Amino acid sequence: MARHLSRRCAVIVALVVAAGLGAAAAVTTPFTPGAEATVAAGFLVVLAALPLRRVAGGSAGAGPDGSPVPGDATKPDAPVPRVGYRWGWRWALVVAPLLVTVAWELLCFAHGDRAAWPTLSSLLDDVDASPLGRGVACAAWLGLGWALVTR
Amino acid sequence: MSTRDAVLAVWATIGVLVATVAVAAALSGGRLPGYGALARAATDGPVRRTVVVLAWMWLGWHAFAR
Questions:
Q1: What is the pLDDT at residue B18?
Q2: CA distance B66 to chain A (A)
Q3: Residues A25, A38: contact at Cβ < 8 Å?
Q4: What integer pLDDT is reported at residue A2 of this predicted model?
Q5: In chain B, which among 21-50 make CB contacts under 8 A with chain A?
Q6: Is residue B34 helix, strand or coil?
Q7: Which residues, 6+ apart, have CB-to-CB distance to A150 below 8 Å?
Q8: How many Cβ atoms sit within 10 Å of the Cβ of residue A63?
Q9: Which residue among B3, B25, B45 sits closest to A94, beta carbon to beta carbon?
């Protein structure tokens, strides 16, 4: 219970920090110490969340094929077992779009002409051009990092 | 239609594809893996997690500081 509450508090604090860093990022400019400090602060926040990583199976309930997932969320001190992934060919459904994204990114990058062949980075530059877009993108980046280290 | 318009149309199509997979996985009730499952698989183990976190750090640095 206490662990649950502390986790909830940590999430609330993280949201507030993400909003603050997003706002800070909105008013910074790349290649300046302010931008570097903002990103470095994001690193620290997310790395500080590493101890909050879930016990495997804590929220999943059952595995993808209906089999029970190893691990017991009621025993947070128990060793974390490795989860089996049994989707087989179904993984292709989620991997294929990412491979297409990478292939298209490389193709655009190889052309060199960013104006005619925009890459994801140049598309993100367009988003970052406005303070609002930059702040939202930074908050989304922090959220992604938080999800990656705590799930 | 300019080259840029065509490239942007492909990016939009890829975006729709990525979102469709996410929605399909969410609606499948666990029968299909989603990006969350992929992220869990990618971060299963200290080495993988370190690589993914380093990639995430590079992304932030590349997008917002450099």
A1: 95
A2: 5
A3: yes
A4: 61
A5: 21, 24-25, 30-41, 43-45, 49
A6: coil
A7: A49, A50, A52, A53, A54
A8: 17
A9: B25
The reply to whether B9 touches chain A by the CB within 8 Å rule is no
Alpha helix ranges (H) inside chain A? 2-26, 33-48, 91-111, 120-128, 131-150
Question: What's the pTM?
Answer: 0.72
Domain ranges of chain B: 1-32, 36-66
- Residue given tokens 């469709």 in the structure block: B20
pLDDT (tens digit per residue) in B2-61: 999 999 999 999 999 999 999 999 998 888 888 988 888 888 888 998 899 999 999 999
> What is the Cα–Cα distance from A149 to A144, expressed in whole angstroms?
9
Residue A85 has its nearest CB partner, among B41, B62, B65, at B41
At residue A12 the predicted structure's pLDDT band, cuts being 50, 70 and 90, is confident
CA A24 to each of CA A40, A48, A72, B12: distance values in angstroms, whole numbers, following the listed order: 12, 19, 40, 29
How is residue B51 written in tokens?
A: 């690589």
